[in-house]
Design goal:
Layout (H helix, E strand, L loop, with lengths): L14 H10 E6 L4 E3 L7 E7 L1 E7 L5 E8 L3 E2 L13 E4 L3 E7 H10 L1 H27 L2 H16 E4 L2 E4 L5 H8 L3 H13 L3 E3 L4 E3 L2 H6 L2
Antiparallel strand pairs: 1-8, 2-7, 3-6, 3-8, 4-5, 4-7, 9-10, 10-12, 11-12
Length: 222
């Protein structure tokens, strides 16, 4: 109950109503590289991340992975298709050992009908995700790889970063291939771009995360 209270969509419910949610919610654990669901599968449930990290991505016509988002504790997913019964719009895969709270679609839809204020909050979340995707598409069209990578770093820092001195640390085990899949380029191009940033002492990176040395620099990039 205490964990679910942090989610915006449940913020207006009282303890008695939360107990009803507890009765329909279950826990699932996933090891790294296990699929939560795959694109095109029948929509089974709505997921809330208690701990761990989940990668949502699509596969393009050439078989390339296009990362849509990295989701961590406190996130819910999927973000679209609540009202049309469509299949899962992307594949979700655990990056780390992950624990999820799961509510079946039928039960979740019943919650939305019972508590209209939840529906409004879900629509706000969906609207924000659509705006984020529109911004990424515009970046793909109008920006070079360095700009797209910087934008990805800024978004990750805003969503997953912690302040560290004058910089910000992105505490995610993200690979260069993941970056390539996020910004629509090759791993080799990402390698070169990140190495240039390291030479300029803009950032350092290891297997556990990325340290942006100057948060002001990152926030000033357009």
């Amino acid at each position: 109950m205490e964990f679910l209270k942090q989610f915006l969509i449940f913020s207006s419910l009282n303890d008695e109503e939360f107990k009803q949610i507890e009765e329909i919610a279950i826990k699932r654990r996933y090891q790294p590289r296990m699929f939560v669901f795959m694109e095109g599968e029948e929509r089974e449930a709505v997921f809330f991340i208690k701990s761990g990290l989940v990668k949502a991505y699509k596969i393009d016509e050439d078989g390339n992975e296009q990362v849509i988002s990295l989701l961590q504790s406190g996130d819910m997913f999927p973000h679209v298709g609540f009202f049309d019964g469509s299949p899962y719009p992307a594949t979700a895969e655990a990056v780390q050992e992950t624990e999820l709270i799961v509510i079946r679609v039928d039960d979740f839809n019943e919650l939305l009908m019972t508590y209209p204020e939840m529906t409004i909050k879900v629509m706000k979340i969906m609207g924000k995700k659509i705006l984020d995707l529109q911004e990424r598409i515009q970046g793909f069209i109008s920006k070079d790889v360095q700009h797209r990578l910087t934008h990805a770093l800024r978004k990750l820092a805003a969503e997953h970063g912690v302040q560290k001195g004058t910089g910000v640390y992105i505490n995610l085990p993200i690979t260069n291939q993941d970056f390539a899949n996020m910004v629509g380029t090759s791993r080799e191009t990402i390698n070169r771009t990140l190495n240039e940033m390291k030479k300029k002492k803009l950032l350092t990176a290891d297997r556990s995360g990325i340290l942006i040395h100057d948060a002001d620099w990152l926030n000033s990039c357009n």
